[in-house]
Amino acid sequence: MTETTLLPASPPRRSTNFISRLLRDTGPLIVLLGLFILLWILSPAFRSPTSLSILMMEAAAIGIVAAGQTFVILTGGIDLSVEAMVSFAGVVAAILIAGTNQAGGQIAEGLPSILAILAAVGAGGLIGMVQGFIITGLKINPFIVTLGFRSILLGVALVWTRGAGINIAKDDFLNFVTSFIRIDLGALESIVGISQLRIPMPFVIAVVIYAVVWVVLRHTKFGRYTYALGGNETAARLSGVNVDRTKIMIYAISGLLAAISGVLVMGRLQSGAYQNGTNMTLISVAAVVIGGTALSGGIGGIWGTLVGVLIIRIVEQGLVYLNVPSNAKEIVIGAIIVMAVALDVVRRGEVKWLRFGRRSSPT
Amino acid sequence: MKPSPLLKMQHITKRFPGVLALSDVHFDVESGEVHALLGENGAGKSTLMKILSGVYQRDAGEIIFKGRSVDFATPRQAQLAGITTIYQELNQIPYLSVTENIFLGSEIERGAFLDWRTMHRQARELLARLHLDIDPRTPIADLGVGQQQMVEVAKALHHKADLIIMDEPTSALSIREIDDLFAIIRQLKADGVALIYISHHLDEAFEISDRITVLRDGRHIVTVPTDTLDMERLITLMVGRDLSEQFPKEPAPLGAEVLRVEHLTQGKRLKDISFNLHAGEVLGVAGLIGAGRTELVRAIFGADPIDSGRILIDGVPVTIRSPQDAIRHGIALLTEDRKRQGLILGMNVRENTTLSILGGLTQGIFTDRRKESAITQDFIDSMAIKTPDQDQIVSNLSGGTQQKVVLAKWMATQPKILIFDEPTRGIDVGAKVEIYKLMNTLAKQGVAIIMVSSELPEILGMSDRVMVIREGRVTGFLNREDATQEKIITYATAGLDSPGGEPIP
Amino acid sequence: MARKVSLAVVLMLALSISVGFVQGQEGTPRRVGFVPPALTSPFHVAMVEGAQARADELGWELVVQAPASEGDFQAFVTTVEQLLETGVEAISINPIGTDSAITAVRAANERGIPILAHNFITPFEDEALEVASYIGYDQWGGAEALAAYTCELIAGKTGMSVEETTGKVYILLGIESIFSRRRTGGFIAGLEKNCPNVEVVGQQSAEWLRTRGQEVASVALQQNPDIDVFYGNSDEMAIGAALAAEQLGLVINEDFFAVGIDGNQPTLDLLAQGKFSATLGVDPFRMGVTVIDTMAAIFAGEEVPQILLTPSVVVTPDNLEAYLAGELWTEPVAGFPELDNDMPTVPEEEIESSS
Q1: Residues B436, B249: contact at Cβ < 8 Å?
Q2: Which of B89, B121, B403, C50 is the most exposed place for a label (fewest CB within 10 A)?
Q3: pLDDT of B299 higher than 80
């Protein structure tokens, strides 16, 4: 009865708005740059273009998974099946290329890799779609459905491989997919001491995917619906948004991207094994959240996720560069995740006791 | 010498930002009395009771309870002093037992453990006092709404309440259950407990109360013994203000019939509803809360499925299974809860405005940003939407402006039929008038409008025709010239067509 | 109703067939249990296959059950207890969470059912527990032998003598456990003994995974571009390292070597193709056979050694065929327990006296 509408006393000034928005949008980027500079100072080995190349390589596969995860989290859902999908797609592609599911080395008696990859990626998209159907049709929490599919996919990968990796020989297409693009540095050679910068093809693929995702989120109906769904599903439904179809598409995309990632991992390791996707779910969710996308959905973006992925990867690699004892790594990575998210929450002013000067007193 | 009353509230004033909710209100209750507190929505009944029960703090005035001046900072303090409120929405924990709910917050312990035996015994005694045959070990969820309410009464007795406030206690009860409740109220009365009874059902007030107090616009109007009033007089006391200024109705010429609803039925909520609607017409839909108004418009809009009946648009039967279908057929619905159902609060003005027409704004696979901006700007200008720019996030806008954004979203779909559910809830007076004027404009353009509202003045002020609903049925139609608040309330409550109402199975 | 009846008939038929099959064997068929830590690696799959093959020959029923993942110690104990409950005459387990497996051993002891440990020769510290036999290979000794061969590889590259050669070795560790410690300790001891001038330039965990091996090796090569040898506590990690080095333009068996422990089929195939340098072959298939043979000896009332050491050999492209043919397999012998003490499993004086 007494709904009090909060009218802003005066429209917020553009300048403060701009600064706070810049801070919000670039917060994770600043963290990334800080880590980069820190590692640059601390580790001589890091100061070469090749280490950049390695960072890109390591960021590519998980980055693609995280791109799909961004879609899902933007709608307020979560996809716990991605790591299983990475393994599953790799196993499918490897078996098709090898033409056998017997563990063995460097076999390529099956399909040309391009066909095998298309089949694996297609299967990924299809399985994601099935998950979407179950989530929307039976109204089951995505957490449960994707957790179930995680088990199913890992189990299938395990049964098909009998625990061993399926080794494959790379054909031209796979060689291309895992190759490097060399960029001559020319005059810079004297400064960095190396004549070429090698950009891994998987990273190029990842960046292309990110660009496409950005366009989709920003400039298509589907992208708008993704945000609308996460912002307020009821309102979106009542506005005529086909919520179910959008969700099914979202999970299909997540499955598809995880499968693409799975194929890249498989190509790089030349082996389709059920362990290929280990830890990717956790890392992808962490990257999305570090990148500023709210777990509750509706707020966030794709580039933040890429920055999040790079932050996690640079921390992991930094620990190797700095010879930090292996067992301490988990602690550092966990702490970084919690701190990055905590920083974000504080920055957005959502923590009451950390906001100064506006303490409300009980009347 | 007359004994001093159990409760005496004097000169109570309460101000909310921008609103004077209560102004110098007097109210008193005697022991063993049932005192009905009546008034329209927004008259100040709930505010007054929340001040009494410690939810709100008064700005001025005095409360004397059992001869002492009191000042409750929290509901808990009021409860300890002997004032218990039984809310419309029951505050019970469904999977805990009756005993656990009664003793929630005042558990009896023996050492570190709960003393179940004592608690069950006391619970059984309380239930027996209310003639209730319920095992105290039963989970609350297994009881009917009526019984749940009785348990709430038992809880009040457990807290040794001298004064029980009942806010719309019968809204979810069947006739049988209401009879049971009244029996218990009479018994409590006999035991010397006082009750404040708040209800929209005026006939109930006549049946159970000893005295009636009427509030209007935050002011005390009258306190009289119930038997000195009749229904008509009571309604006149409750309403009675000049509405011409507030409602700038400009009649539009009626066109052809655009919507016909026949025998629409949905479970127990909607029963055999039929009506029609013409282009340029504003059909007001009145009824009590829970009568089925929102359910009706949601069903027409395809948000909830219907069991039977049909809908014709422009004379052609249509199938509407989802909001998308409805939108395709030119229907738009402004929901009653703007924030939860109407807007994507985290999105900006442009994104909200074009949400329902994005499909038409897509070129190839991309949305046409320029067209989107142009359409949004048109609405911002034509509807005077007060926003710094299109990129403003709508959660930063005022209630009235938000409502305009929702309206813009629907006008963008160029609807033939526009349904408003509580169009002006939570909006200040100035913005209300602007919304009404927009309604006039739309009607003149030939849009057919359905307006669901709980505010009778709004219904009377803006409708060409009024449809009244009670318990899921249409109880009457009134033309603009015939419609009065009294008639609407009569149709909506006591009911001319079936006096006494029907039991809800 | 009709469906229920037909289902019951099918079930009974199936039962009678299986009973008939078992009883078709001469004498009473033995029913024995076999519990790997999980069936998620080819190593354990191969061991099961060996045990199964031998059990089939003997006409025994072999019940294999394993937890879904290796880290799930609780499921491991539950699995063992369930097998005991269903009635087995002997059981062999591969405990990796050593202390948690004690519960499982105790359960077998209480029922008086002989329990064996396979791929595991570190006796439980609880003296009251009775394990009929620990069957497995000497990880320390195997790693030491692999190190000796690694020294030869490095010497071959540098052109110096084995004793004098210098070189750089990078170690990819498994997740911290007795397994990773023994395999690392033995390897380092082997390097010191055979080529003391070779330096271990780094050790990092790669969590037993090929992906992590690749990631860690990529970075390691940034710090030390001239690493000569990647040694993995498991082959998979070393294979990952080899792929990483190749991606940086290095050529295996020329610029660098990759060696590891396990000798699984995928590794052996890579070895045959010149994509790997050497692995420690422990022949899990024949280890599985040994488990069943030991059970048979116990059933026959024979004395079995407390520690039964199975052989391990350094498999190189040269002896690969012989290894695959089983020619390098030697009969298991009574051995010494492998303790988590940073010392060789087989005491130095024993080696000297036997040689």
Answers
A1: yes
A2: B89
A3: yes
Q: State the smallest CA–CA distance between residue A246 and chain C in angstroms.
A: 34
Instruction: Give me the phi and psi of B414, to 5 degrees please.
Output: 50, 65
Backbone angles phi, psi at A55, to 5 degrees: -60, -45
With an 8 Å Cβ cutoff, is A327 touching chain C?
Answer: yes
CATH topology of domain B7-238: Rossmann fold (3.40.50)
What SS3 class is residue A70?
helix
> What radius of gyration do chain B's Cα atoms show?
25
C317 touches chain A (CB under 8 A): no
Cα B430 to Cα B399, B452, C104: the distances in Å are: 12, 20, 78
What lies within 8 Å, CB to CB, of A273 at 6+ separation is A87, A90, A91, A157, A161, A164, A165, A166, C210
DSSP designation for C75: H
Q: How far apart are CA A148 and CA A51, in angstroms?
A: 38
Can you tell me the distance from the alpha carbon of B338 to that of A238, in angstroms, rounded to the nearest whole number? 11
Query: In chain A, which residues have their Cβ closer than 8 Å to the Cβ of C268?
Result: 105
Nearest to A164 among C219, C265, C270 (CB): C265
Pick the CATH number of C27-137+284-310 from 3.90.360.10, 1.20.1200.10, 3.40.50.2300, 3.40.50.720: 3.40.50.2300
What's the pLDDT at A1? Answer: 37
CB contact under 8 A, A215 and B19: no
Q: Do A278 and C211 touch (CB under 8 A)?
A: yes
Could you tell me which residues come within 8 angstroms of residue C225 by beta carbon, excluding any fewer than 6 positions away? none
Q: Of B430 and C300, which is predicted with more confidence? A: C300
Q: Write down the domain spans for chain C.
A: 27-137+284-310, 140-281
Angle at B366 between CA B365 and CA B367, to 5 degrees: 130
Mean pLDDT value across residues B296-312: 93
Is pTM beyond 0.90? Reply is: no
Q: In the CATH scheme, what architecture does the domain C140-281 have?
A: 3-Layer(aba) Sandwich (3.40)
Please determine whether the domains at C27-137+284-310 and C140-281 fall in the same fold group of CATH. Answer: yes
Of B46, B356, B361, the CB nearest to A239: B356
To which residue do tokens 């033939």 refer?
Answer: B416
Q: Give me the architecture of the B243-330+415-505 domain, per CATH.
A: 3-Layer(aba) Sandwich (3.40)
User: Any idea what DSSP says for residue A358?
Assistant: -
Whether pLDDT at A19 is above 70: no
d(C-alpha B499, C-alpha C243), whole Å: 87
> B399 is written with which tokens?
């209630």
Spatial separation of the C-alpha atoms in residues A211 and A207, rounded to whole Å: 6
Angle at B113 between CA B111 and CA B116, to 5 degrees: 115
Torsion, Cα A103 A108 A109 A110, to 10 degrees, reads 90
A126-130, B49-53, C97-101, C342-346: which is most confident: A126-130
Question: Which of A3-7, A46-50, B351-355, C67-71 is the least confident region?
Answer: A3-7
Q: How far apart are CA A125 and CA A257, in angstroms?
A: 8
SS3 B307: coil
| CA end-to-end distance (rounded Å), chain B | 50
Q: How far apart are CA C155 and CA C231, in angstroms?
A: 16
